[in-house]
Amino acid sequence: MKQTDAATKVVLIQVRDQPHIVEHERDCFAERLGRDKVELHTINVTQEPNIKISDVDPYAAVILGGAGAHTVTENYDFTGPMTELVIKLVETDRPMFGSCWGHQFIAKVLGGSVITDIAHEEVGTFNLWLSDDGEKDALFEGLPKSFFGHMGHHDYVVRLPEQAVELAYSQRCRNQVFRLRDKLVYGTQFHAEMDAERLIERLGFYRESYVPDDSVFETLTSNPVPTPESDQLLRRFMDMID
Fold first, then answer.
1. Does the structural domain 8-239 have CATH classification 3.40.50.880?
2. Where are the alpha helices (DSSP H) in 49-156?
3. 20 to 30 Å CA-CA from 5: which of 107, 127, 140, 159?
């Protein structure tokens, strides 16, 4: 990222229906990107489904956020426009980062496969391991081979697009991180925008659908696991942008 006094303009594309979760997700990304370095704007496609490439032209990077109440395995009003947008962003070499739903959506649009499978769901904080390619990738340079990430998903990527390289995996769910070859396009199944405190807040919002068991919720929220490595990734991504 160029070293200038002006903050870098970034757009977060949100897929959220509830105002308090819209705000929470925006704040999470702003914190991890660095409010001192990034001027974060948002477009919510549940309200503005007909998104176009011209809508994101003013921004140095595009981030696709999560979507607790939506699934990549179904179609919505925004699915077609978002598909065209992702394809154009890739074709024109625009920096893009997908988190959770965004990770899954990018993979599917480019020819990968995403399924809903409760047996492979991950809710809470899980250990991840870098692949050989991940250890060599600039995003993870200097970080340990094993680290933790915060997660909350029922869907997962079972097959990556041909142009994607797997960078990290977990015991329960492969394809935790991918990058498109020779492009600044990344996807993380885990939520790189949330630290431990923010995860607890998010789990509270989605308790009924993700953590209905009281004892499980108590276990997840009473002993939060810090994630210092994954907390760095969004800033590291921005540092890679010319």
1. yes
2. 53-56, 79-91, 101-109, 132-136
3. 140
> Where do the domains of the chain lie?
8-239
* Burial class of residue 208, CB neighbours in 10 A (0-12, 13-18, 19+): exposed
Q: Does residue 100 have an active-site annotation? A: yes
User: pLDDT 10s digit of each residue in the chain, 242 long?
Assistant: 444 468 999 999 999 999 999 999 999 999 999 999 999 999 999 999 999 999 999 999 999 999 978 999 999 999 999 999 999 999 999 999 999 999 999 999 999 999 998 888 887 899 999 999 999 999 999 999 999 999 988 899 999 999 999 999 999 888 999 999 999 999 999 999 999 999 888 877 766 656 656 776 677 777 889 999 999 999 999 999 96
- Rg of the chain, C-alpha, whole Å: 17
Catalytic: 193? yes
Per the residue annotation, which of 28, 100, 122, 173 is the catalytic one? 100
Distance CA 150, CA 224 (A): 10
The maximal CA–CA distance of the chain, rounded, in angstroms, is 49
Q: How far apart are CA 64 and CA 191, in angstroms?
A: 11
